[in-house]
Amino acid sequence: MNKTLFENGLIITVDDRDSVYRRGYLLVEDDRIAAVGEGDYTGDRTGIAVVDADGKAVLPGIVDAHTHVAGSLFKGLLEDDPNGFYGFALPMEGQLTPEDVYHLSRLGAWECMQAGVTTINEIYHYVLSVAKAVDEVGLRAVISQNIVDVDIGALRYNDYTRYPAKGEAFVEDNIRLIEEYHGKDNGRITCRFGPHATDTVSMELAKKCAELGKKHGVGFHTHVAQSQREVALLKEAYGLTPVEFLRETGLLGDHLMAAHCIYTTPGDVELLAKSGTHLLHCTEGLGRNGDFPPMKEMFAAGVHVVLGTDWLTMDPWTNMRFGVALNRHHGVDYETASARGMLRRSTIEPARALGLGDKVGSLEAGKQADVILMDITGPNLTPMFHDPVVTLVYNACRRDVSDVMVAGKFTVRDRALQTVDVKEVMKNGQKVAYDVYGRHVATLS
Ligand SMILES: [Zn+2]
């Protein structure tokens, strides 16, 4: 049995009582947490590798509820372009090959892991390439295929012509993903169905996804009410709001991870709350776009809100701060939009939403050892008074993360990636990004 003992660390458990031990220990046996507590570990030390965590905070790995890891490709291309999503990003995605997605996903997976993310809820194109990359980098992941029955490149012209054969092919890709990856490596990788968004799948295709999810015993991941044109399209086609559309298809419920939900009505908010659907709130990305769901109403109605980073910048720490700032700006009370609240919505709450609450999201004996260490000796985290969670959430930077462990194995040690050759990840990621950009720009001229 492999045993690792972290001692002398500031242990932030994110358990139900939010227990924090100013000087404590965490014992890992194989892939699991065997013990966690205050003070010194007094058990037998035979055969234990000891890590002195003095000057470090020890936390559960972050669970990022909504990612497209290959989407780090678009960094610096979309942030200041009001029509960037439909006008630039989706057509540029049309240039991607499976090989491109593989290299870009390795780059994005490393970005996530470097920031202390250990679990991602991921949905993208060429998902077998994504799964391979994410698996190699060593993240825990829940993965879905982007299923659409439109030509995403044509969406810039507001052309929503349906191509049923295209939808079928993506469904087949999602089934292949489930067959190859669901439950892989003792459940480190699991899968869902990914009807992409309420405007990019037809009612028939969305219903088919719902049926297949039931058949395969897996949940769903989608985008909801991202734009006003999406709302207008569904109103015209079906006389429904995006959330009502999801109810009609059978997708709404606690098996659904629903990103964004920006343009929602009071009735939609009620439906989301009553159905137990999980709202994936991507605060930094939405903040940049100037978009914001009716969060005061969402929280008041009891919608289960968890945080995701989406793409471009996959930094859970800045995302938590956007979560506090934007929610308070929109009238959400201080306690709900607090450091503690945002940390919980970035760890244990998304873990529960994904059905992984008994496995990850907090440091408790019996759970999987998904653990991060953060250097707390820098000036940004000094001084640290009686509530380290507040100091940490308002001031931590992703480069403060020094070590990452997933299922009891170090994937990052002293800031160095242990799983794959990081130079190769960076070189290929950069090269592929420039190539894809060049091919896309050539289509515009
Ligand atoms: Zn997204």
Automatic annotation (TrEMBL):
Domain Amidohydrolase-related: 58-409
MF annotations from Gene Ontology: hydrolase activity, acting on carbon-nitrogen (but not peptide) bonds
Protein keywords: Hydrolase
CDD domains, A to Z: ATZ_TRZ_like
Pfam families xrefs: Amidohydro_1
InterPro entries in the cross-refs: Amidohydro-rel, Metal-dep_hydrolase_composite, Metal_Hydrolase, MTA/SAH_deaminase
Protein name per its UniProtKB record: Amidohydrolase
Organism (species): Anaerofilum hominis
Taxonomy of the source species: Bacteria, Bacillati, Bacillota, Clostridia, Eubacteriales
